[in-house]
Amino acid sequence: MASQSQILGVLGGGQLGRMLIQSAINYNQDIHILDPDPNAPCKDLCQKFTVGSLKDFDTVYAFGQDCDVITVEIESVNTEALMKLESEGKQVYPQPHILKLIQDKREQKQFYQQHAIPTAEFILTENKEEVIHNKSFLPAVNKLGKEGYDGRGVQVLRSEADLDNAFDAPGLLEKLIDFDKEIAVTVARNAAGELTVYPAVECAFHPTANLVEFLFAPADISEEVEEKAKEIAKDVILKLGMVGILAVEMFVTKEGEILVNEIAPRPHNSGHHTIEANFTSQFEQHLRSVMNWPLGSPDLRCPAAMINLLGEEGFTGPAIVEGQETALAEKGVYIHLYGKKLTKPFRKMGHVTVLDEDVTKLKAKAMKIKDLIKIKSN
């Protein structure tokens, strides 16, 4: 195992970095953080906090000088600076060329196509005019090639009446899939080539914010679909040749076909429940994989639900948490707040994990907690 004297640099100091640090503390692992927000959730928890742009070459390059291993908690970073650091002997995981590929949804989709990874049919478009020209392809999802995240940069175009919402920038049109379920499988791989895969989880999305609202583990799918999904996720990380943790989001169609939707080369919202529900959390696994330590068991200890705590609509300002004490009185309820002082509509402010051996009780408890805890402001 690598010595703890190695410094791990993380680009991004949000809640994912915060939860990564919480795992790293158990191993005396020093972490340096770069983030543009002087009040980022990680600022008081890391050994060194630097305020600066993740997209500026000089800033990222200078930050990397003090680190032995560099990783990310957000994809939107300067990959050229990371490539230079990598060429100078720094260990950068996930590798910069993979980050660059994933930053562009157009490149990502073409990668699936070229490597026989099942995905929805798509057309590349340069502008709004080209989307309109391909109106016969509707119903479809119009996605921006770059800079879209957390549901932003995605428009559902069901009919010609929706074409005015199309993006006037390079993007793609993806066939709208009439899916039965949305699932996610997390895989991790270290530099030694050890690979491990988590059980599939089932995601339910917020109807308007396009963010995961609920997550259930294990997913309510057949053993056959579960195994197929795991094999696809392993195939993706191996074909990428990636080191680190990778969340693979997929659709299960009504015919039982599995299609890869998108991937995230970092800890992801679909793995937050693993802190309490699995033998090794996704954050510890990310740490183990980028530091080239042995990987931990990904198995579930107990069925779990995860509820995202989003800022309530109509509230912007200093955050107030309602219903927390009542929720804490419930057995198997774990609240994670992300240290964000200000709330705004649909901002990710925290999450709650609920554990229960009985899946029916688990779902009922999760619904109850969702209605109980609200993030508002004065």
TrEMBL record:
Protein name: N5-carboxyaminoimidazole ribonucleotide synthase
This protein's record includes keyword Nucleotide-binding: yes
GO biological process: 'de novo' IMP biosynthetic process
Signal sequence, renumbered to the chain: none
Keywords linked to the UniProt accession: ATP-binding, Ligase, Nucleotide-binding, Purine biosynthesis
PROSITE patterns to which the protein is assigned, alphabetical: ATP_GRASP
Protein family according to the UniProt entry: Belongs to the PurK/PurT family.
